[in-house]
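Dear Dr. H.,

I hope your travels went smoothly. While you were away I took the liberty of generating a structure for the chain from your last submission, since the lab meeting agenda had it listed for discussion. I wanted you to have the full record in hand beforehand rather than looking at slides cold. The sequence, exactly as received, is reproduced here:
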Amino acid sequence: MADKPTLSLILPAYNEARAIASTLQEAVQYLEQRQITYEIIVSADGNDNTREIAANIGKTNPLIHVIGSPDRGGKGKGIRNAIAIAEGKWIGFTDADNKTPITEFDKFIPYLEKGIEVVIGSRGDRRSLIERRQPWFRRIGSVGFAVFMHACIGLWDIVDTQCGFKFFQESIARDLFTRQQIDGYMYDVEILYLAKKAGYRIQQVPIRWHDDNDSRLQLISGNIRNFKDVISIRYRQYASYPEANQKQSFFSGCAMSGGMNSRETMAAQTDPEDLRL
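The corresponding predicted structure, in token form, is as follows:
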């Protein structure tokens, strides 16, 4: 790409054939109306033709790129692979099923222009507009999981760690996702943990959001894996930051103890329905 785009927008997708075309159409329309130079990277795993649909759209728009494989690699891995090839001044991602309209990016631009390192959507902000909530059992489970996660990791000042609408300065995205190791849903927690540890500023922004009644999250096995990943984040050895940036203080312990490139060839993933707070 001759000129560096302002925004690299990543759409992580796992079997999102029904939604990917409309999400791409809305993203392109918004970015072109706002005159934001861009590239869009669809990082898609699965076997329902999501990649093929996106690639066909990309034939008419060279700013759309597609990576991924039939195998499910994990949302964290998919975003990590996409960021490795992203070229924008700002790099971010949103769910391929459009839970948060891309027009919400308007609220993020002023913070990114000021140089804020990490700008994230927050459904927990009182000013957020939740147009359709999750089922009651997921809301209850999310509250319980949040208590556990905060007790283990900290991040007490971040109300919503897992909204799939996050944007970064380019150098910060590369730094964080080079250190990031979780392939699955808890990559959000890991990224924010690393950002806090590095002393980066994190701006939380109220957003519009709606649940899509996606039931693909495996509530038992998936959440067991999420618990394990949170514990591993707490005790994992990460590449160290400069001593002056070691600002993160942790809660004294977990409730549980113990340890427990080319765009054409890179693989990616997502299931856009994480465990939502």
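Two observations you may find useful: Residues 242-277 have pLDDT under 50 and may be disordered. Residues 115 and 203 are 11 Å apart (CA to CA).

With kind regards,
E. W.
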